[in-house]
Design a protein that fits this description.
Structural class: mainly alpha
Number of strands: 3
Radius of gyration: 23 Å
């Protein structure tokens, strides 16, 4: 930390980032307020908290080490982003208007940030800005698009485990075929929609890893952890279906309980991965 800089100087270098993040938060609240007060409020609220945590970390890093533009290079990059904004806004494309609106607003915030604050600040701020401007308003569509391959992977893993335990099970894409029933792993059961694991995984990565590089590597393991935890949940569903619960395991009470169990398993996996990364990176830190 450069102790020679005054608080006023730090705020002057950081104010553009603060304004951009405030604008992104306001955009999210205006466009997704209905989701926050709906029955399915858990996902948007969890993503909103994740965005706030990311924003706090970005603001802290920028305040500790503020940077400014480097002249022509950042000006050209800023104007390039602005040109991309106008092209996306004006050129007729076969995309949904809401998608266009979200992406345009994201670019509109990035352009002045690059012009006034430089490359480093822009790269750091792009992630929470993406969460607020694109990911959170369109989280349902994004998760629906990426959940299918994860459902296939989780179904295949759980089918392999069940066969190892002696169950007569086959898997086809997202369907587990048992002797007398077919269990379809739907989008709601894909595991990728367990946003609590994404939030808790970020908190774990932040607490367990000190360097940004290792935090990113740690957090990348969040998706495999969620997929593997979902496979474990599917194995338990099949076992409990055979004995002792029966059909009841497929309905709301057991279904929701096993969903929370999946989150705990995913967080436990993330914690173990964090410990392994911490142990593996210790020799590198000593050099």
């Amino acid at each position: 930390m450069n102790t020679a800089m005054t608080v006023k100087a730090r705020l002057r270098f950081s104010v553009a980032t603060y304004l951009a993040l405030l604008a992104a938060v306001a955009f999210t609240l205006c466009t997704t307020w209905g989701d926050f007060v709906s029955r399915d409020w858990e996902a948007p609220v969890t993503l909103f908290v994740l965005g706030l945590l990311l924003s706090y970390d970005v603001c802290h890093k920028i305040y500790v080490r503020p940077t400014g533009p480097r002249g022509v290079q950042d000006s050209v990059a800023a104007y390039s982003v602005l040109i991309l904004y106008f092209l996306l806004a004006l050129v007729p494309l076969d995309i949904d208007d809401y998608w266009r609106q979200c992406c345009c607003f994201w670019l509109l915030l990035i352009a002045p940030l690059r012009f006034s604050s430089g490359h480093r600040v822009t790269v750091l701020a792009m992630i929470p800005l993406f969460v607020f401007c694109i990911f959170l308003p369109r989280h349902s569509e994004i998760m629906l698009a990426i959940s299918h391959p994860f459902r296939i992977i989780a179904t295949g893993i759980s089918g392999t485990f069940l066969r190892l335990f002696g169950f007569n099970v086959s898997s086809t894409l997202t369907v587990l075929r048992l002797d007398n029933v077919d269990l379809a792993v739907t989008d709601a059961c894909s595991g990728i929609q367990q946003f609590e694991a994404l939030l808790l995984g970020y908190i774990l990565a932040k607490r367990q890893q000190k360097r940004l590089t290792w935090r990113i590597i740690h957090y990348v393991f969040c998706i495999p952890a969620v997929i593997f935890a979902n496979a474990i949940r599917l194995v338990l569903v099949v076992m409990l279906y055979h004995w002792p619960v029966g059909d009841a395991v497929l309905y709301s009470g057991w279904h929701e309980g096993l969903g929370y169990f999946q989150v705990l398993v995913a967080v436990l996996i993330m914690w173990v991965v964090g410990r392994l990364l911490d142990y593996g990176s210790a020799p590198l830190r000593g050099k």
